[in-house]
Amino acid sequence: MAQVIRVALVAGEASGDILGSGLMQALKAQYPDVEFIGVGGPLMEAQGLTSYFPMERLSVMGLVEVLGRLPELLARRKRLLRSLIEAKPDVFIGIDAPDFNLDLELKLRRAGIRTVHYVSPSVWAWRQKRVLKIRDACDLMLTLFPFEAQFYDAHQVPVRFVGHPLADTIELQADRAAAREALGLPQGVPLLALMPGSRGGEVGRLGTLFLDAAERLRARRPGIHFVLPCASPQRRAQIEQLLVGRDLPLTLLDGQSHKALAACDAVLIASGTATLEALLYKRPMVVAYKVAPLTYRILKRLVKSPYISLPNLLAARLLVPELIQDAATPDALADAVAPLLVDGAIQTEGFDVIHRALRRDASAQAADAVLTLIGVRHATGA
C-alpha cells in the first residue's frame, strides 16, 4: 500500500488558486495517495484542499491597503506557520504571493520541511538581491518562463522551468471569424482591440490616450472598428465616462478579453500579463506604459531589464513596440499600430515560436518536479 503524502499549499489570489488547482489535479493523477492542507480558494478546495482560513484574507492590493491589514496578515502567517510545523507536510508549495510566502518558506525550511515556490517574482528585473533570500527559503523554484530559469541557474538556485498553463489551454490557432460572430462584431473590417488595463489607475493613465489614438486611426481607416473588454463594472463606467463627446465605432464588452483577442486583428495594450494572452492568441500588438512621473524616475533607476513587456522578454529582442511614458502619445501609438492592421507577420511568427516553447503541460511538469523533490515514485510508474 502506497504511503500517503501530505502537501501544503498557500495561494493568495485568484490567479494562484487557478495554478494551485491545476497542480493539485496533476499531483493526484501522478500519485493518488495525497492529501492537501494550507490556504486556497474555491478551485483548490474543490480539488480537496483543507483551507485553514479563506484565501480572501490574503488578497490585498496596494500599499495603503497592505499597511492597514498588516497586523492581521502577520498574525495569520504566524499561526499558519505554527499549524504547518505541527502538521509536518512532506512539502510546502508557496504559489506566487512572494511577500507572504517567502518568509513562510524560509521558516518552514529551517524547521526541516522541504519548500517549493511556484511562480517567480520579478527578481530578474529589479531588487535582484532578493534572490539571496529565495536561495535560503526554497529547495526548488518553479518558473513559468525560460528566462527566469536562466536567472536562477546563474545564482545557484535549484529551478525547473515548467511552462505556462495558459499556453496549454489557449489553442495554437484562434478562429477569428467565429469569435467575431459570437461577440456580434462586424466581419471583413479591420478590428483593433483596446486594452488599457484592469485597474482604475491604469485606465486613468491610458484610457484617454488609447481613445485619442483610436480617433486618429479612424481618420486614416474609416472602416475600422474597435473593441474594448472591461475588466469590471467599475472599469466599464470609467470607460463610458471617457467616451462622452466621442463618436467612435467601439464595442464595449463585460470581461470576455480572450474572445476580444481572438476576434481582433491587432491590439493596443497596457504592459502587463495581458500581453502574454495577446501573444498566445498571435495578435500583433503595441505596448504602452505610463505611471506617475516620480514613480517612473524611481523605476528607471531600479529596473535592470532592457524591456518591459513579456513578449520582448520572452523573445530576448524588441519584437513588439514599447512606447513608454512621454513617448506614448496618440500620434505615436497610431503610427505604430496602423501597419500591424495590414501585416503583423513578423510579430505573429515570433509569437508562435514562443507559444510552442511555453506549451509543456505545466501542471504535470510542476507535479513531477514536486514528487521528484520529495523522493516519491509516481504511482503511474513514470
UniProtKB/TrEMBL annotation:
This protein's pathway: Bacterial outer membrane biogenesis; LPS lipid A biosynthesis
A Pfam family this chain is assigned to: LpxB
Top-level taxon: Bacteria
Entry keyword annotation includes Lipid biosynthesis: yes
Keywords: Glycosyltransferase, Lipid A biosynthesis, Lipid biosynthesis, Lipid metabolism, Transferase
Entry EC number(s): 2.4.1.182
Record field: catalytic activity: a lipid X + a UDP-2-N,3-O-bis[(3R)-3-hydroxyacyl]-alpha-D-glucosamine = a lipid A disaccharide + UDP + H(+)
Family designation: Belongs to the LpxB family.
Record's function text: Condensation of UDP-2,3-diacylglucosamine and 2,3-diacylglucosamine-1-phosphate to form lipid A disaccharide, a precursor of lipid A, a phosphorylated glycolipid that anchors the lipopolysaccharide to the outer membrane of the cell.
Protein name: Lipid-A-disaccharide synthase
